[in-house]
Design goal:
Structural class: alpha/beta
Distance between the termini: 56 Å
Strand order of the largest sheet: 5-4-3-10-9
Mean pLDDT: 91
Radius of gyration: 20 Å
């Protein structure tokens, strides 16, 4: 079986699903189940307040029967991110954290300097860190050297729906770190974007806004599940090289020649 390995976990699904901005807890639950996702992300700074369900929200997440990946979404400093990670460890009894340190308000681009500092400190405390980063090769190398074993580069700004803004950069990242699990996080707007990421050889995608804010979130979650499966299958099958000129699919040899 083609499993996704993240630290000591093995997952059959290559789709991770966020839990923010759904119209209701019921639709969130149905969407997670329709997606087949093995991991859902939870932002401690936002979720309870947005859904106004208090402990009911945490009970709902636990009832889904999937792994929970807390994240430090909305944190703009190393101190904020580390404090949030400590809260997540206590609440969910997990050492795993999706680490976000935001550096720019308009694009929500990661502060890669703060991200690296926070990652180092948390890894020293025995956290398993999954950093939300850019596709920069130097940043990736530094994060891996600090002890991160998974990277989550952005496709485009969070919630923008723009897809894969820098395909060259993402392809280079995949080529430079062939054995590292890479998850495209942020900016994916359609199932075709997700399929494209998997076709490039990325190991998984994390989707939130594109599902939660769709006209029919449950149907969209199912569509993303199919797209991820198709993209992975295409990558394993081996896509043809891109050409500048046509290459005939019908052999010329043996065709009738009319003078």
């Amino acid at each position: 079986m083609d499993l996704l390995r993240l630290y000591d976990s093995e997952l059959t699904s290559r789709l991770l699903l966020g839990t923010a901005r759904y119209p209701s807890p019921a639709i969130l639950e149905q969407s997670v189940r329709a997606s087949g996702a093995g991991i859902v992300t939870v932002a401690l700074r936002r979720e309870g307040a947005h859904l106004r369900t208090g402990q009911g929200f945490w009970s709902l997440v636990r009832s889904l029967g999937v792994q929970v990946l807390p994240n430090t979404a909305g944190c703009h400093s190393v101190k904020e991110a580390i404090t949030t990670a400590h809260m997540a460890r206590e609440l969910f009894d997990t050492r795993r954290i999706k680490l976000e340190v935001i550096g720019e308000v308009d694009t929500l681009q990661p502060d890669v300097f703060g991200l690296l500092e926070a990652a180092r400190l948390l890894i020293q405390e025995d956290f398993e860190v999954l950093p939300y980063c850019t596709e920069d090769l130097v940043v990736a190398e530094r994060l891996l050297s600090a002890g991160c074993r998974v990277l989550m580069p952005w496709g485009a700004p969070i919630g923008s729906g723009r897809g894969l803004n820098n395909v060259f950069g993402l392809r280079s990242l995949r080529a430079h770190f062939p054995g590292v699990p890479l998850i495209v996080d942020a900016g994916i707007g359609t199932p075709s974007h997700a399929a494209a990421a998997l076709e490039l050889g990325f190991d998984a995608v994390l989707i939130n806004t594109a599902v939660a804010q769709a006209r029919d979130p449950v149907a969209m979650a199912r569509a993303f599940a199919l797209a991820v499966e198709a993209g992975r299958a295409a990558y394993l099958a081996g896509t043809i090289p891109v050409r500048d000129m046509a290459s005939p699919s019908t052999p010329v040899i043996g065709q009738a020649f009319v003078p």
